[in-house]
Automatic annotation (TrEMBL):
It comes from marine sediment metagenome. It is found in: Cell membrane. The keyword Nuclease does not apply. It is a multi-pass membrane protein. Keywords: ATP-binding, Cell membrane, Membrane, Nucleotide-binding, Phosphoprotein, Transmembrane, Transmembrane helix, Two-component regulatory system. Residues 119-215 form the HPt domain. This is Response regulatory domain-containing protein. GO terms for cellular component: plasma membrane.
Amino acid sequence: MAANGRAAVDKAQAGQFDLILMDIQMPEMDGYEATAALRQGGFDAPIIALTAHALASDRQRCLDAGCTDYLSKPIDRVRLVRTVTRHARGRSAARQDGQASGPSAAAGDGETIRSQLADDPDLAEIIGEFVADLGNQAEAMRQALAHGHHGELRRLAHQIKGAGGSYGYPSLTDSARELERAAKAEDTEAAVIALRQLELLCQAIVRGRAQGSHAKTTEG
């Protein structure tokens, strides 16, 4: 527990945490500022925003600040447990996948990828929402790269990196990590290659989601 946002940042930077529940309404430094500070400092574990605001614009503001997910108050205990479990499990899967496979490879034409969590009925809806938004996120990254906005590209790639494993797509996390690294270095050539790989993975994930149990390949 931290008394305010500044204390939360100090504690997170001083210790090792697998996940943070970030109250957006905090004194001294609010949750948006605290999350942004942690991300700028290299903290890459899931950060779940807890806020009294439930509008779509509030959710987007949390994601833009660097939060991995969002829960509105009053907090439903069952949903909280499921959300924490999903992100913790996804982070563990992403670590194992990264250690086993090394750099990510682009999906081939026509290949499909299913979520490792696809068989969990409690997660079906939110996985579907995540996959449905991948096209918009890919377009935003293309625009950022086209206009030379490396900082924005890095931020967008970081969001995908944090969310990929949490939704059962560790290869997406690995690919986004490569794009984030290229954007941080302002290496446009490497970013173009990394973004293309990420786009191919997104397309394979969308196909896998559409085909469901008929997917040709499954991660894991």
